Amino acid sequence: MSNAPNPLEPSPATRNLSLWRSFNAVAWGFFGVRGNSGLQEDGGRLNPFYVIGAGIVSALFFVLFLMVLVNWIVKT
User: What is the DSSP letter of 53?
Assistant: First the structure.
């Protein structure tokens, strides 16, 4: 077995960048202001599993934020 890196497997730096781009794409999707050219570009670059995970995490944070905000408003 050789210890040569697999060219098909992304490096950790690329993987982190792709995860960040997934969160960025999900954030733009939440606001609904992503242009068609950006959507086409993201569709070819992003890992769908990262986008799904970023969407779930972002939705959970959004719901938790709304719950905290409502509780804070009701208490005052």
Answer: H
User: How does pLDDT run across 45-60, given as a tens digit for each residue?
Assistant: 788 888 889 999 999 9
**Number of neighbouring beta carbons within 10 Å of residue 26:** 22
Residue 74 has pLDDT above 60, yes or no: yes
Token pair of 47 as six digits: 């890992």
CA distance 29 to 38: 11
Residues 6+ apart with CB under 8 A from 25: 34, 38, 42, 46, 51, 54
- The residues near 10 (Cβ < 8 Å, ≥ 6 apart) are 18
Query: For residue 36, is pLDDT > 60?
Result: yes
Write down the pTM of the prediction.
Answer: 0.67
